[in-house]
């Protein structure tokens, strides 16, 4: 019996995916290095330098046409403008969470993001859920109630992160595969750059900008925000072309898990009994969702194979 070796390109799928999700998970270690810059100033630099990084890469790969073509399509540009608003909201909230020592809340937000994606599918796309998906949503809702009761208010950081990124993913889905990840990010940051530059100019005029005032090293760290944003995205894009969706779906949990460990073990954030209970409910929900998704994908593959086999038989 012989086995067919995976092509060399496919073998890189898992390392590329691991690199992307681990880099995203390590983000809480990066943003504190940018202080005393505040969350909004950091994001303004992130927008501007991400655009520079994307345009440079598009130029090197001779793919600038895919970027400029979007501006000739009002519908696509409109959708990506909405996406830009959502991702900037997500970025500002995330950096605020890290700088204000709420990394565990950020981790919770990305843990519940798959549940929010399912919920948005029901509310926006009118999708019908399987029983297990309803069970997972029930566990997720219970987690929010438990944590809210324990802290005396809604975990708004977690909810804003989950709903902004879930809505961002839904919005990007409307563009489909007509615009790749890199030109899409370039368009989104291009739309936001005038506002970011305006804010940075205002900081400079009022004398409160930290860029260039905290030394060359700090300025370079702010500039590196473009690379920090672009590299994991490129790794993810390359991995997505090589890995099954089921594997990508499992890898996505690496990011909030690493964030959780950073917040708990390195930053020493407090975990009350109610938060432990809430996280436990979310983890149960994700297990239910993952098992159900795996079974559903397997059933779909088997059904497709059966149809193909039947079609191949002579009549």
Task: Summarize the model shown.
This protein is an all-alpha fold. It has helices at 8-11, 13-25, 27-30, 39-60, 64-68, 74-99, 103-123, 131-151, 156-175, 181-205, 216-223, 225-240, 245-251, 254-266, 273-312.
Characterization of this structure:
The protein has 15 helices and no strands. With 315 residues, the chain is an all-alpha fold. The mean pLDDT is 88.
Supply the key terms.
315 residues, mainly alpha, globular
What is the share of helical residues? over 70%
Mean pLDDT across all residues, rounded? 88
Secondary-structure-based class equals mainly alpha
Query: What general form does the structure show?
Result: globular
Q: Tell me about the biggest sheet? A: none
Task: Please compute the radius of gyration using only Cα atoms.
Answer: 21 Å
Order of helices and strands: HHHHHHHHHHHHHHH
- Poorly predicted residue ranges: none
Number of helices: 15
Strand content: under 5%
Count of extended strands: 0
Strand and helix layout:
Layout: H1 8-11, H2 13-25, H3 27-30, H4 39-60, H5 64-68, H6 74-99, H7 103-123, H8 131-151, H9 156-175, H10 181-205, H11 216-223, H12 225-240, H13 245-251, H14 254-266, H15 273-312
Helix pairs in contact: 2-12, 2-14, 4-6, 4-10, 4-12, 6-9, 6-10, 7-8, 7-9, 7-14, 7-15, 8-15
């Amino acid at each position: 019996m012989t086995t067919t070796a995976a092509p060399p390109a496919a073998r890189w799928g898992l390392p590329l995916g691991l690199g992307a999700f681990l880099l995203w998970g390590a983000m809480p270690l990066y943003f504190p290095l940018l202080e005393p810059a505040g969350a909004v100033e950091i994001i303004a630099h992130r927008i501007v330098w991400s655009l520079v990084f994307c345009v440079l890469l598009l130029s090197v790969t001779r793919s600038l046409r895919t970027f400029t073509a979007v501006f000739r399509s009002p519908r696509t540009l409109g959708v990506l403008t909405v996406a830009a608003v959502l991702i900037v909201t997500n970025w500002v909230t995330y950096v605020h969470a890290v700088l204000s020592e709420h990394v565990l809340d950020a981790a919770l937000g990305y843990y519940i993001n798959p549940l929010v994606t399912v919920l948005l599918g029901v509310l926006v796309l009118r999708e019908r859920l399987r029983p297990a998906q309803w069970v997972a949503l029930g566990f997720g809702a219970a987690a929010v109630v438990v944590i809210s009761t324990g802290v005396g208010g809604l975990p708004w950081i977690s909810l804003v992160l989950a709903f902004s990124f879930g809505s961002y993913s839904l919005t990007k889905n409307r563009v489909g595969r007509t615009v790749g990840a890199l030109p899409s990010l370039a368009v989104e940051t291009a739309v936001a750059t005038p506002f970011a530059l305006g804010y940075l100019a205002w900081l400079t005029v009022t004398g409160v900008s930290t860029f260039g005032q905290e030394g060359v090293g700090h300025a370079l760290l702010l500039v590196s925000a473009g690379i920090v944003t672009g590299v994991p995205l490129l790794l993810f894009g390359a991995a997505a072309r090589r890995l099954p969706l089921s594997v990508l779906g499992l890898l996505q949990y690496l990011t909030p898990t690493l964030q959780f460990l950073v917040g708990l073990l390195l930053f020493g954030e407090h975990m009350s009994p109610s938060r432990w209970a809430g996280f436990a409910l979310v983890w149960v929900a994700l297990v239910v969702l993952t098992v159900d998704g795996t079974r559903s994908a397997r059933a779909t593959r088997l059904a497709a194979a059966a149809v193909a086999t039947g079609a191949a038989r002579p009549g």
